[in-house]
Amino acid sequence: MRTVGRAPVGTRPAARSPERPTMALTFTSRAAQGLLAAGVALLAVAAPGVPAAAQTDADTVTWSVRPADESGEDGRAWVEQELDPGATAVEHMAVRNLSDQEVTFRLSAADGYFGDNGRFGMLPSDQESVDAGLWIEVQGTVTVGPDETAIVPFTTTVPQNATPGDHAAGIAASVVSEQVAEDGTTVGVESRVGFRVMTRVTGELAPAASVEAVASSYDLSWNPLSPGTAQVTFEVVNTGNARLMITGAVAAGGHEVAFPGEDEIDQELLPGERRKFTVTVDDVWPWFYVPASLEVTPAVIGEGEGAPVDPVAAAAGFWAVPWPHLIVLAGVALMIGSSLWGRRRSKARLRGLLEEAREAGRREAAEAPPAGP
């Protein structure tokens, strides 16, 4: 069994400082009277020593949940482990109560996933886990005194028939409070704070990805002296059995834009997950048809981290009719045509006047009396 710590979401695994913040996951849920239906909630990223918090009507209960060993927090952001089918591993979680009162926390585990925003979450309490969330056993509750920390063990047991590759779960400590809804009913609220548990089952690793639903659009600038903006939308699907970091680039109109951007969260995909991306390319001139291309370059996360996966390329060209430029050209052509037509009419009129003058002269000459001897 191998257990390692990894950088939290929001940092890239390469070319970054090893000093990275720890992470806490906060989940808040509501249900009808007397029910606890945990809904998706919020992913909070906290710096070291800064806990995630949940607030009730009466007071504020503040706590943190982080990976640990038997003696306390061990500095990991979450747990990553590699296990054989049928193997068991024991880990620990540190539940720290930063409130001024004793709190009993409910402990639970559930399947994990990455949401559309790229942040990690775990299934809400009213949904049943079908994968790694079922592999984790942890005691049901723990009571922690004010400003104290409880170290709680939990066990991961991989089924004999587990498929090779990466499986995600989350483990959390939660508190339940009651709030009064606008209609006067009592609403149960469960707030969860936890971290992810990533388990790689040994066996053949087959990382792969595909690109689907590629679509392009173009926003024209009605200023003929300004270029427009292109958008390329597509979905990336993790078709293998390994967790992937998704990066790539879109090229259009002589410009290339990498995704995700420097100020955007890293994009991880678990096996079977898909995510929609939209990449904007500025300063694209409308040359009727603009060739564009998309390349996705996935990389394995975990053991063999950064190992490249076969890149996926797709065409993304689009039509970009330069209507403002055509309108300007049509206007110029109309002005030139009007000018030429005016000149032609002027010449024709002048020729008519000259012909009338000559005709008048001939008539006068014919009507004049002959000159005397």
Can you characterise this structure?
The protein is 12% helix and 47% strand. It has 373 residues and is mainly beta. The strands form 5 sheets. Strands 1, 2, 3, 7, 9, 10, 12, 14 and 15 form a 9-stranded mixed sheet that branches.
Secondary structure blueprint with pairings:
Elements: E1 2-4, E2 24-30, E3 42-44, E4 52-55, E5 60-69, E6 72-73, E7 79-83, E8 88-97, E9 103-114, E10 120-122, E11 136-138, E12 141-144, E13 148-157, E14 165-180, E15 186-201, E16 209-219, E17 228-238, E18 244-252, E19 255-259, E20 268-269, E21 274-284, E22 288-290, E23 292-300, E24 312-315, E25 318-320, H1 323-367
Parallel strand pairs: 7-15
Antiparallel strand pairs: 1-7, 2-3, 2-15, 4-5, 5-6, 5-8, 8-13, 9-10, 9-12, 9-14, 11-13, 14-15, 16-17, 17-21, 18-19, 18-20, 18-23, 22-25, 23-24
Assembly state: single chain
Low-confidence stretches at least 5 residues in length (pLDDT < 50)?
Answer: 1-58
Q: Which class of secondary structure composition applies to the elements?
A: mainly beta
- How much of the sequence lies in strands comes to over 45%
Shape: elongated
Compressed to H and E, one letter per element, the order equals EEEEEEEEEEEEEEEEEEEEEEEEEH
Number of helices: 1
- Nearest-integer average pLDDT: 81
**Helix fraction bin:** 10-25%
Rg measurement, Å: 36 Å
**What's the main sheet like?**
9 strands, mixed
Please give the number of β-strands.
Answer: 25
End-to-end separation in angstroms reads 142 Å
